Amino acid sequence: MTSKLSDEQRTQLLTPLTEWHLVPGRDAIQRNLRFADFNEAFGFMTRVAIKAQEMNHHPEWFNVYNTLDITLSTHDVDGLSERDIKLARFIDALASGTHNA
Fold first, then answer.
1. Predicted local distance difference test score (pLDDT) of residue 2
2. Which DSSP string corresponds to 59-79?
């Protein structure tokens, strides 16, 4: 079962996620990405969607042309969980080109 991050877990797990910021008024994190064009943005979203489906954990996102805003929060616990951290790490690796997706 998934549980909400403790204060200690928050400090430890969120610190390395330098591209992510806390969402004001919510227990969620968000990252903004920019791509060369819509095709690249949509391809990225597709790879994230496949991973998210495998995890049964689905991001909130907003896409216009070459920009993508991703928000992660675990609705089952009404806040951040290790699932969010795992998906954020996957997204970071994919964005940096270090993940073989």
1. 85
2. -EEEEETTEEEEEE-BTTTTB
